[in-house]
Structures are given as structure tokens and as C-alpha cells.
Specification:
Layout (H helix, E strand, L loop, with lengths): L9 E5 L19 H15 L3 E5 L2 H13 L9 H27 L5 E3 L3 E3 L12 E7 L1 H11 L3 E3 L5 E5 L6 E2 L2 H9 L3 E3 L6 E6 L2 E4 L6 H11 L4 E5 L5 E3 L7 E7 H9 L9 H12 L4 E5 L4 H5 L5 E4 L10 E2 L4
Parallel strand pairs: 1-2, 1-12, 2-9, 3-9, 4-10, 12-15, 14-16
Antiparallel strand pairs: 4-8, 5-7, 6-7, 10-11, 13-14, 14-17, 15-16
């Protein structure tokens, strides 16, 4: 990547699933492996583009926090779900801040890194509270999901053909309460880690705010943050190297490049799963429609090449007709 002179801002959303080892059952972060890989790329973006803001998911991690609370409830009072979100913001932010700081120190680059606990305002009457849909925690077999529902009273749903997971309310993000603090830190040249896990969901009651039991979708609030900060690029780092059509089928094909209109067409055709890629695509569409220039979706290790158009999925504005065709790979 070549250094540029014009100011730019990049929001990078790191998926919670990409920060735990495959098959992990305890939710521990591989801080010097998986986190190291993505932090190497984040450091390079900060060096050559500046203005980097990092968000992260917490789906697996907050699920484990909820499970710990449930299993220990006979010994200590369980925390509220909002506290669980804040806790995962804290420790994931800590790991990313620490490892990213190590990378910058090794390179002799002096860029401060700040992790900020962030609250996000939601509406108390959001219909999501009546229809839990956000998957959290590990995957279960149908048999184990049934046991969890009986034992803990959880609501469980099948998740994109990968197994069963607990689902919790996921209200729409309306306002990031610490937005001006984030903007100030970015303007001062810092790398900011914020709105982790979608931010702590809160509602306003007069002069006060209070946490509510929910998990906000990380991709939607990251897109909102990118829009409010007037970022030109929104990067989604996830567990797969591309967005795919016919995902999970023998003829699946990677989308390498597509216009906003083409991605809207794929959504209308039901190409993406609700608990998997669909929220990321909807967030991407929203970002582009509100002034963003491009979205890049890929996995850790591919981010830099994807930003140069040599890997991953890139989504941009365009007026090309659907018949022109997005650039797809050959079937696997």
C-alpha cells in the first residue's frame, strides 16, 4: 500500500468469531495468534492511511458470559445482559489494544491506541424486544439446544445451517453516546477501539440512561459510526475471505466485486442468511447510501490485499444494470 497525503478515515469491524480459535468451547481469545494477525493489518492501515477506528463483534464471547452467569447464579447474583456486553467490550478491547500496541512498538511507530467503553441508544419500544433474533454464544446440536432451553429457559434458533444458538433481542442503534469523544480522539491522531459488540444498549429515561437486556448488531452500529465520522471506507473482517452466492452449496461462488445495486438484488433474491452474512450486507448498503465510498469484506490476513482490490469482496456505488453482472469467481 502507498502512503497518501489526503486525509482519510477507515472503520474496520472485526468479527467476534474471527477472534476465537476454530472449535473453541470456552471463548478464549487467541491474543498472539488470531488477534496478532488482524492487528498487523490494522497497524499498516494506520501507518499509511491514518484515521483508523476499530469496532469488534462479541457474539461468541457475550454468549459465554451469559452462560457463566447462568451456571454461577446459585453462588453469585448474575449480571445484567448490558453488563455482559460492557464486560466483553472491556476485555476484547484490552486484548486488541495490547496486541496492536505491541505491533506498533515493534515497528517504531508512535500512534496511541485507546479502547473506549461505548453506549448506544436504542428505543425502549423497539419491536426486537418482542422477537429475539441475534445469535450469541456457541453452536449446539438440536439435542443439546433442547437441553439448554429446558435448563436455562433460553430461546434457541437454527443458525444458517451451522447448528443451534441462543438468540437475544437486537434493537436498532439510534445514537452513539460517546461519538464526540471518539471523533476527538481520531482527530488527535489516535487509533480508537469502540462500540464493541454493538455497544452497550441503553435507553433514556429523562436525564438518565439505563442498560437494557439486548445485543445490538455490530455491523449496523459500525456502519452508523462510519457514516457519522464521514469515513470513506468501511472494512468488515469476518471468518470467511469473501461474500458468496449459493453459500453452503456445491456451486457456491465468491463475489469479488459488486455495485450497491447488485448487492441489493442479491438481498432481494434471498442469497444471504439472517444470522450470518445478511446483517453485514444490509449494513454495507446503508453505509454506501449515506455517503460512504466503498465497503470491503474479507477475513483476517486478507484485509490489506482486499483494500487494494486483490482479495475479498468490494462493494461500491454504480449505476450498472444487474444484467452486467457482479464479478464472481468460478464455482468451488
Amino acid at each position: 500500500m502507498q502512503a497518501i497525503r489526503t486525509p482519510s478515515r477507515t472503520v474496520v469491524a472485526v468479527g467476534g468469531n474471527s477472534l476465537i480459535s476454530a472449535g473453541a468451547v470456552n471463548g478464549n481469545l487467541d491474543t498472539h495468534g488470531l488477534a496478532r494477525e488482524v492487528c498487523e493489518e490494522l497497524a499498516t492501515i494506520a501507518q499509511y492511511r491514518g484515521g483508523v477506528v476499530i469496532t469488534h463483534g462479541n457474539g461468541p464471547q457475550v454468549g459465554f458470559e451469559l452462560l457463566r452467569n447462568s451456571m454461577a447464579s446459585s453462588i453469585v447474583p448474575p449480571d445484567g445482559m448490558d453488563v455482559n456486553v460492557a464486560a466483553t467490550q472491556g476485555y476484547i478491547g484490552y486484548f486488541l489494544q495490547q496486541v496492536l500496541g505491541d505491533v506498533l512498538e515493534e515497528r517504531g511507530v508512535d500512534i496511541p491506541v485507546t479502547a473506549l467503553i461505548t453506549q448506544v441508544l436504542v428505543a425502549p419500544d423497539d419491536p426486537a424486544f418482542r422477537n429475539p433474533s441475534k445469535p450469541v454464544g456457541p453452536f449446539y446440536s438440536l439435542e443439546d439446544a433442547g437441553k439448554a432451553m429446558d435448563q436455562h429457559g433460553w430461546i434457541m434458533k437454527e443458525d444458517a445451517g451451522r447448528g443451534w444458538r441462543r438468540v437475544v433481542p437486537s434493537p436498532k442503534p439510534r445514537r452513539i453516546l460517546e461519538l464526540e469523544a471518539i471523533r476527538t480522539l481520531v482527530n488527535a491522531g489516535q487509533i480508537v477501539i469502540c462500540v464493541g459488540g454493538g455497544g452497550v444498549p441503553v435507553v433514556r429515561e429523562g436525564y438518565k440512561v439505563r442498560g437494557v437486556p439486548a445485543v445490538i448488531d455490530k455491523d449496523h452500529v459500525s456502519a452508523l459510526l462510519a457514516t457519522r465520522l464521514e469515513a470513506d471506507t468501511y472494512v468488515i473482517s469476518t471468518a470467511v475471505p469473501h461474500v458468496y452466492v449459493n453459500f453452503g452449496k456445491p456451486d457456491r461462488r465468491a463475489i469479488e466485486y459488486a455495485t450497491l445495486e447488485e448487492m441489493e438484488h442479491f438481498v432481494s433474491m434471498g442469497e444471504f442468511a439472517e444470522g450470518s452474512m445478511l446483517p453485514k450486507i444490509r449494513a454495507s448498503i446503508g453505509f454506501l447510501k449515506h455517503g460512504g465510498e466503498r465497503v470491503v469484506i474479507t477475513s483476517p490476513g486478507n484485509i490489506l490485499r482486499a483494500m487494494d482490490g486483490k482479495a475479498g469482496t468490494t462493494i461500491v456505488h454504480g449505476t450498472a444494470a444487474i444484467k452486467s453482472g457482479a464479478r464472481l469467481s468460478e464455482p468451488d
